[in-house]
């Protein structure tokens, strides 16, 4: 991982210290947080010059929160500071202002706490089944054999599709994700076509035989009108694709970091074993401590001064979630796992403002279900000896987590 900060050398851009840290590189486990922590403490802001457009890094909690709230002038025309090119279309992410509000109004009800609660029974049942599959073996690659499969099954259920389709859907989504992070672009493009064709068939089936639009999201998307117009087939497919891209890799990654922590910290694991009802609070502290979406990107639409930064139209902003969630000014002793810490629900792991994560209640439910069902069946486990754990850069994830337990 290349790293060096201009804070100490006096190198500046528009008066702001320059950072050369490459956050897209892979590193040893928790390497990115160490760099983010160091840069946040070295200077309030940095200009990072590792990309042709460069980006302005907001790092402190209060600044990052304010950045999320400036949605009128800082828009998602740039979604990631590390990759500011438009990329594949995403909905509702790519919309801003009134258009965004109108589409969120259509989809929000399916992700509200009450709607997500309808998936609770399935989340626990499916999780228990998958844990029972690995339990007799005494070991598994937690990422490949569990953490990838579980959210995929629930995602299909969310769209009202058969969970059993996970069998062929999973290899496609893995190939597609691989393409975003250095894998074979041709294979990724082919996988994307297959996924879109799969969604297309599912949506057409629902057009032919609609279900209750109050409970079935695809039927609702078909039936909904925005300014009197139906949502096009293409946009419905983009919404399905967005939910897949936004929901699968994130949930899987969160599980990897959580279970690494629990395997390494027997005391924290004991808290969950002794009282599984603390699972939702534990999830919250885990995603504060290990925010895998370390940044959200934005593009500045109007010149302005932001706490001493001179910004011009077209500037790329890095809203540093990974720095804010571990900012000791907001969360004292940020490296400690403290269930029920003060102000915990103000963490920014799901973003803030109008683009705040649509799937956050679902993610919370899924993660809490795993804490409960896994520890009920496999309370004690360890990381296989001699394994060097790593994390992918960009949006953090662990490629592998080999766990062992006694059977
Ligand atoms: C631990 C798991 C998750 C994390 C950490 C996470 C994180 C985030 C963050 C930080 C954003 C804001 C991005 C921005 O402001 O530019 C976001 C947006 C979004 N997330 Fe999640 N997410 C998770 C799970 C999910 C799931 C399970 C789904 C759906 C099935 C989902 C769907 C979305 C969508 C659609 C958006 C865009 C919302 C909009 O622009 O209006 N996420 N997520």
Summarize the structure.
It comes from Actinomadura vinacea. Belongs to the cytochrome P450 family. The chain is of the alpha+beta class and 407 residues long.
CATH superfamily: Cytochrome P450
CATH architecture: Orthogonal Bundle
Proportion of residues in helical segments: 40-55%
Q: What ligand molecules are bound, each kind once?
A: protoporphyrin IX containing FE
Classification by helices and strands: alpha+beta
Q: Uncertain spans, ≥5 residues at pLDDT below 50? A: none
Lateral arrangement of strands in the main beta sheet: 1-2-4-5-13-10-6
Examine the coordinates and then state which fold CATH places here, giving the name of the CATH topology: Cytochrome p450
Total separate domains: 1
What is the mean predicted local confidence, pLDDT? 94
